[in-house]
Amino acid sequence: MIFDNLVSRARNNIAKRRHYNRLVAEIENLSSRDLADLRADRSEMLYQVHKQVYG
Predict the structure, then answer these.
(1) What is the 3-state secondary structure (H, E, C) of 5-48?
(2) CA 36 to CA 16: how far, in whole Å?
(3) Which of 11, 20, 21, 55 has the fewest CB atoms within 10 Å of its CB?
């Protein structure tokens, strides 16, 4: 039971990390022009992604 919980939490954390890394890569690949078109700030987007994934 304890081992199952440990494995389940590890899988969940790995899935969160993959999702986070994928979103960060997308944000990092946006050009300055893309950000201007979106009227977005890269650091704010990264903050929101972290908040969304990790709470």
Answers:
(1) HHHHHHHHHHHHHHHHHHHHHHHHCCCHHHHHHHCCCHHHHHHH
(2) 29
(3) 55
Query: Are the C-beta atoms of 35 and 41 separated by less than 8 Å?
Result: yes
Q: Which residue has the tokens 């979106």?
A: 38
Distance (Å, whole) CA 5 – CA 55: 20
Residue pLDDT, tens place only, 20-53? 999 999 999 999 999 999 999 999 999 999 999 9
Asked whether the beta carbons of 42 and 27 are under 8 A apart, the reply is yes
Would you give the distance in Å from CA 21 to the centre of its chain? 5
For residue 10, give both structure tokens: 């590890």
